[in-house]
């Protein structure tokens, strides 16, 4: 397959799909019309689908020739962000029609690329071997993520996966380039949300109250020194509070405080150790202050780690099909987090970064910001790069480590 030519021939397809999804974003766990559209196009391409409750959509494509089964994934949810009609340089080519909801992370591009890849692969079944499972994942951003029901569906229905592929558009990587990292590609993350239940009182008699605010200050102070005394300086672990809510009057001590945040890590051992310490510190200090700590959210997502053999073949495939200029070898690990880490902890695979930065287009604002935008030519390169790797991997079947099925439940217990 001349994947570069085929991808550019389908530029109108990937652009029109991206604009449709961008104009019609839906929040996590509410992507119903989005999934209708995905299934509509997959059926149009002759691809059978299954919709998994609270998970997403699978598409199944068989070349008719024996071989490996490749899983290709895209996430589909948008964010509760009000979009700026002007990007970094000019008015947008398309804008959300759902007020206060925006594809500010690039999932519109992910869906468009994967559907375009599905179309090309379906039209050229005679040029590759094996099977492909297209996975469109709900709720990657927030809430009860869709990845667990999807992976359990594959396991429970005995659908064997040999290897997996995913990609994420990258705000600061030039359009026309992809990056494929050895080892860790994205950070692990611990999401926490806690309610501290105390006893309210008057500001003149704090001794008669049990202040959740004072308790939170103690928890925050204890955690502040954690990284210096527990994490190797050559590794990275960061944490932040994204939300603190309590009280409303200066002379009333509230009876409840809610705080939430995340920790990010480059090594799973560090992230899991922080989680353990966080829970012990929070519960212990709450008890010391005479309060109770209700753990509302307690989710850990592992580091996204690429399989070496897959990276070797991916880099070779992309450079041979698209030229050496298409591969950016210097892109650093991204401290963002992906639920694809759980998929890659279950099956050997690789996760690309697809460049979408172009000052002339006006893209270049970071993810999850109102000015975030996509240079759509970068999506065409993303389609070509994905096809180059996927068809090559199905043909060459690189030797990869064997992943035991029990790995799935051990990973899902962390979320």
Automatic annotation (TrEMBL):
Mn(2+) binds at residues 105, 107, 141, 168, 368. The Mn(2+) ion enhances activity. Residues 187-276 form the Peptidase M20 dimerisation domain. SUPFAM superfamilies: Bacterial exopeptidase dimerisation domain, Zn-dependent exopeptidases. One of its GO terms (molecular function) is metal ion binding. Gene3D superfamilies: 3.30.70.360, Zn peptidases. Keywords: Manganese, Metal-binding. Its cofactor is Mn(2+). CDD domains: M20_Acy1 (cd03886). InterPro entries: Amidohydrolase, Bact_exopeptidase_dim_dom, Peptidase_M20, Peptidase_M20_dimer. This is Peptidase M20.
């Amino acid at each position: 397959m001349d994947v570069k030519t085929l991808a550019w021939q389908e530029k109108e397809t990937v652009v029109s799909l991206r604009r449709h999804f961008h104009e019609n974003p839906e929040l996590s766990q509410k992507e119903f019309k989005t999934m209708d559209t995905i299934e509509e196009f997959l059926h149009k391409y002759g691809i059978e689908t299954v919709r998994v409750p609270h998970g997403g959509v699978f598409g199944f494509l068989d070349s008719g020739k024996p071989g490996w089964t490749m899983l290709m994934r895209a996430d589909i949810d948008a964010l509760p962000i009000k979009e700026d009609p002007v990007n970094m340089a000019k008015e947008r080519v398309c804008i959300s029609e759902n007020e206060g909801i925006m594809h500010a992370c690039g999932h519109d591009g992910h869906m468009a690329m994967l559907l375009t890849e599905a179309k090309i692969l379906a039209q050229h079944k005679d040029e590759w071997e094996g099977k492909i499972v297209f996975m469109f994942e709900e709720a990657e951003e927030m809430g009860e993520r869709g990845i667990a029901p999807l992976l359990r569906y594959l396991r429970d229905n005995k659908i064997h996966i040999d290897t997996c592929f995913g990609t994420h558009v990258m705000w600061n990587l030039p359009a026309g380039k992809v990056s494929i990292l050895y080892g860790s590609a994205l950070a692990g993350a611990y999401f926490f949300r806690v309610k501290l239940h105390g006893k309210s009182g008057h500001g003149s008699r704090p001794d008669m109250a049990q202040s959740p605010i004072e308790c939170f200050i103690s928890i925050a102070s204890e955690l502040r020194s954690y990284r210096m005394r527990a994490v190797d300086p050559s590794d990275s672990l960061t944490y932040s509070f994204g939300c603190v809510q309590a009280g409303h009057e200066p002379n009333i001590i509230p009876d409840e405080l809610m705080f939430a945040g995340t920790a990010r890590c480059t090594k799973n051992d560090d992230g899991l150790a922080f989680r353990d310490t966080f829970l012990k510190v929070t519960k212990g200090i709450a008890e010391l202050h005479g309060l109770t700590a209700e753990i509302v959210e307690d989710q850990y997502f592992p580091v996204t780690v690429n399989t070496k053999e897959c990276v070797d073949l991916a880099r070779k495939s992309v450079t041979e099909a698209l030229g050496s200029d298409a591969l950016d070898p210097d892109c650093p690990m991204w401290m963002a987090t992906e639920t694809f880490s759980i998929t890659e902890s279950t099956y050997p695979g690789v996760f690309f970064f697809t460049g979408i930065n172009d000052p002339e287009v006006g893209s270049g604002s970071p993810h999850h910001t109102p000015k975030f935008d996509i240079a759509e030519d970068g999506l065409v390169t993303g389609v070509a790069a994905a096809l180059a790797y996927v068809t090559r991997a199905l043909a060459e079947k690189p030797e990869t480590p064997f992943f035991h099925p029990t790995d799935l439940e051990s990973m899902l217990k962390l979320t």
